Amino acid sequence: MDPVVLIYSPNEIRGKIISETLRVKGIETRLAASHFEVEALIRENFPRIIILDMKKNISTETDFLDALSQKSTGAEIIVLGDKHDPSVPGAPHITNTRWIPGPLAPESIVSEVHTILFPKRNWPFAKRCNAMASEVLLRLKRFFFWSVPITATLVVGLIGGYVYWCIVTLPDIQSLNSYSPYKASEIYSQDNILLSEFYIERRNMISPDTLPRHVKNAFIAVEDARFYKHAGIDPVRILSSFLTNIKEGGFVQGGSTITQQLAKMIFFKPEKTITRKIKEIAISLQIERRYTKNEILGLYLNNAYFGTRAYGIEAASYIYFGKASNDLSTSEAALLAAIPKAPSKYSPFVDPEKALNRRNYVLKRMFQTGFINQDEYRHALGDAIPEKIHARRYKAPYYVDHCRGILEGMVGDRLYTAGLKIYTTLDYRMQEAAEKAVHEGIERLEKRGITGVQAALLAIDIKTGQIKAMVGGTNFWDSQFNRVTQAKRQPGSTFKPIVFLTALEQGLKPSDTIEDKRIDYYVKGQPDAWTPLNYSKKYHGTVTLKTALAHSFNAATVNLASKVGIENMIKTAHRLGIKSTIYPFYSSAIGSSELTLIELVSAYAALASGKRIEPACITRIIDKEQAILVEPPAREETVVGGESLTAIRDMLQSVVLEGTGRGALVLKRPVYGKTGTTNDCVDAWFIGFDENIALGVWVGRDDHIPIGGDENGATVALPIWVDFMRGSGENPQPARITVYPSVTMAAGAVSVN
Amino acid sequence: MTAIKKDPHDSPVSPDNRDEEKAPQAFNDSIGIDIGTANIVVAQNRGKEVSTTIQSNAFFTIPSSQTTKEIIAGKSVLFFEKNSKLYILGNSSEYFANIFRGNTRRPMKDGILNPKEHESADVIKTIIENLVRKPNTEGEKIWFSAPGEPIGKPNTVTYHKSIIKMHLENLGYSPVPINEGMAVIISELSGNGSEFTGIGISVGAGMCNVCLSYLSIPVITYSIQKGGDYIDSLVGSSVGEPSTTIKGVKEKELNLSIKPRNRVETALHIYYEDLFSSLAQSLQEALGSSDNVPSLPKPIPIVLAGGAVLPKGSREKFSKAFDDVRLPINISDIRIAERPLYATAKGALMMAMREKG
After folding, report:
1. Residues 58-87 of B with CB under 8 A from A
2. How many Cβ atoms are within 10 Å of B255's Cβ, its own excluded?
3. Is A17 helix (H, G, I), strand (E, B) or coil?
4. Which ipTM did the prediction report?
5. Cβ neighbours of A702 in B, within 8 Å
6. Per-residue pLDDT tens over the stretch A499-541
7. CATH of range A207-381; options 1.10.357.10, 3.30.479.20, 3.90.226.10, 1.10.3810.10
């Protein structure tokens, strides 16, 4: 059943409240999710009432209401919101609407809908009419009997008046010039590679001049063979359609010309009324006077609906055949020409047999009208029809999906409708290197008998905070869960630099020493002590801070954290950009509090440059008129001071030179970083940087089952890190190395040698 | 990991954990499951009855040996082996904890998977696997309770929800989450013109889940990460007693409608008032700051469920907390669910049955 009331609210819950309230009162409703859907439903279902929720009262909603109130939808509009003051300069002039101000009031909405659907009747008068019906009928009979000439004159006058009314209420033909259908937005990498498109309808406008002749001919042959001969309507076609339909024993050909179909498509609802038919003819004649045949055909092909959410020939061509419309063969063009008559019925994906028959009918028409010769006809008949939709896969999918979320917050629905060009920070060359490195890393693991493992990689420019490459998993098309931004995992030892930075900021030096020994830590309320163990299960006695970090000693790190203060360590983490909760437990010092890869890499970027910069994706958004719509500013804040910065970089370099990150030495240039491995190797990490890029790699399983074997951060994540650094074409300047005087720390006291 | 496999109909729980009640409407073979911090409750309809099964959501580890394994395998104890340890699960874990003079551990904390327990996912998975029957058809729907996002902490429950979903999918089900507060509404506000409109609050061990529902639409959902455990822990540290002792007092003796008889009860009264006051304040803020709250023509009820409202006098204590707040909607009455511990699972089951028709 068609809905009586169409509801649109930018807020899904409010929309549902309105819909359910009316539904329990027995009123059929339909909830639209977007402006586009509202328009589509108006075209298809002719609702009696449209309820627009404008509580937020944002300009896009006002513009939409403005546009809707000017259309002749035939529906009453109820607006939930505060009525605009028309005296305010710039306020839209919205008329013919009912307003319900104040908070969401279901009862008021029901009352207003009832008023429209069931207007009050003068029942006593109706009863009186009923009683007098026979008398009135009698008098009418007498009147017509004696007044035939008068009646005939009246009928002719009424018909004339009716036709005149139809013509004077025609829609404005000039709106064809400014007809602006929804258009897909395009998202580009920094090096101008088209990554993907965002769309509701796959509508890409193309010039009719670029279409091959056989494509245009396919549509002309089946829809309107005398297209170039008539002036908008074609009496010959109407007659021939009538005869063809009788001959074929069914409705195979309509009488409408392509011009009439264009008029119907753009200006009218698909209702079958005499009024609409008269208006359609009148507007078709106007279109023919104003536009060339080629322009009319172009408008028709760009706006026709081909099913499977494809509007326009170019979109349809990609969906059905995975190619541009100017590459279509004759049989492919014939199939597309077969579809607009009944897109769901003639879809090759719904009913291949019907689609094939209809396509062959189009080919037959092309042959009969002389557009193709006998050989071409026979050859085309042998071509198969497509069996599956060509869903367009896109590049850097995890990154694009991450951007989509941010963009929806920036531009809302316009992302899918406004034909925006979005320029991003992604370096596609680096992205390819990243995808290759992850792929090969996983392959190496599989060769060692370890399967089902996931990996993620993120590269950030340390000077700008721009994301240069992002791989959120091994296969986006299997799992869209982004392990860079969504997966919260224990960072293990990659968290340790935060503890050491806190110590450096309290005046310690990399050459100061700390005890790496067994210490039992007691937490208030917990009966059992917690004793951190080193990975090697051995303790190393007095060690320098530099050695403790380079070799990732757990006992020394927790000992240091207890001395610098867990709360201070947490403050440092947040200052570096970590947003997740770091629990005030000793185990947090060795990475037991879960966080995301993007947080960690962002924090390491701050360790590299001393500045905290929010990771950025979008550099610029340009609208259809080539105006800059959004250009997000970069915000940076210095969070690590000079000496501490040099010292922590020095210590992270020593991880590579002499510690657990020695695998990175193959790069033969200064790089800095830290390995991480959580208990039983559930998570393996390597996070680090060179002079330009902060790069993080995580490897693990979604269900937290250990990776397996004797793997750790150095054997699993570091090789991927190295591969990316090698393959991304990075060539930074050598780093400076600073030597500090040694300091000894013992039993809570600090003494300088 | 090796888990002891059992016939799905041969639940490891003792018979007194199985409960039957009249099913509320037309019947089909559906399942609802409430995965709480303290307990996992499964509601299934069998013929014209609703069967509820409860299993403690806890575990206890003991060193693994062949002899131990053989002994416990013969005693219908639910367990699995990992890293040379035996993980004793569910109701049996309490028994073993008493024998070994230790405390049971919980795979969930504050209403979500416990980040401190690495085996939490495996523990929950094994308990669920032994509570629910095999799906009748691949992809059969199962409704499971999901916590609301804690106020001011978005995306806190995403991981928890995804893992539970994943485990249920691995069992061959198509899991559908239902907000815990919403499940309380579905369970308790279906008749007498209630039309699923009201405020449902599940006061669990780890968190309180709140849902304002209008005609079964969850208008506002959120949680606060305080619950029964929060009370036990704070009372314990206030009076110097282990929280397990406090839990025992709370579950067996506490009556919140009479004056406290000792300092443990005094502390329990104080922290119950604190919890209910937090709930009332949060509700005032959540309802007051939302544009979605409709103007309702008549007052609506508040229904409380969950293990933490089992003590006598909970309703009165909760009502008192509402004396100091002003809500933008009128409340008709405050009531406790008919069977507080089972209401969420029952609500999830009713959703499943509603869907199946």
Report:
1. 83
2. 14
3. helix
4. 0.82
5. 166
6. 999 999 999 999 999 999 999 998 776 778 889 999 888 999 9
7. 1.10.3810.10
